[in-house]
Write a structure and sequence with these properties.
Number of strands of chain B: 12
Distance between the termini of chain A: 31 Å
Radius of gyration of chain A: 13 Å
Oligomer: heterodimer
Largest sheet of chain A: 7 strands, mixed
Order of helices and strands of chain A: EEEEEEEEEEE
Number of strands of chain A: 11
Helix content of chain B: under 10%
Structural class of chain B: mainly beta
Number of helices of chain A: 0
Order of helices and strands of chain B: EEEEEEEEEEEE
Number of helices of chain B: 0
Strand content of chain A: over 45%
Structural class of chain A: mainly beta
Shape of chain B: globular
Radius of gyration of chain B: 14 Å
Shape of chain A: globular
Strand content of chain B: over 45%
Largest interface: A-B, 31 and 28 residues
Chain lengths: 112, 120
Amino acid sequence: DSGVTQTPKHLITATGQRVTLRCSPRSGDLSVYWYQQSLDQGLQFLIQYYNGEERAKGNILERFSAQQFPDLHSELNLSSLELGDSALYFCASSVGPDTPLHFGNGTRLTVT
Amino acid sequence: AQTVTQSQPEMSVQEAETVTLSCTYDTSESDYYLFWYKQPPSRQMILVIRQEAYKQQNATENRFSVNFQKAAKSFSLKISDSQLGDAAMYFCAYSERGANSGGGADGLTFGKGTHLIIQP
């Protein structure tokens, strides 16, 4: 158990809808990362937050947004969903700079 | 942009044998981190081993060791005495070292993965 909790485990929704994925980092970790894993694109970095502030952006679509709350949990919001957004979404956390990432078990999103 | 290449989509090895998974990467940085992550069917991403580029000594973790060739930008993973529980997807990953990084200022860049099959 990595200590990173992601909910829900599975999510099935229709095109055009909006969903929110939730992540609770390991106790004491200040950094939260979101990754998308799909068959086409592999594992892609989406966005990083550190202690409530956005630190880095990767290949995150404009339809996607995220935030990190004062209690350090994070949410990834996906809107106007398309079939191609179906993927496994991982959250990872770390203590801070130059420390290893620990991944949650992911949320499997299926868009129909 | 950094890229990570894993040229072996699938590898198969007999239980108790040794297998080496290949990884090459491209970067203009001199200081960075390299990782191997394991993703079993449970789909969790598990850190196997981590290498800091400024350290010449190859990292080892029990049956797992790496061959880090900085000049060649090569980072292979050797698994000794393979066990059935080693069956998984293995991902090589790169990250920069820096003040904003917690694994990298731009997060981890992953290869496409190698599916490792362990034959009993």
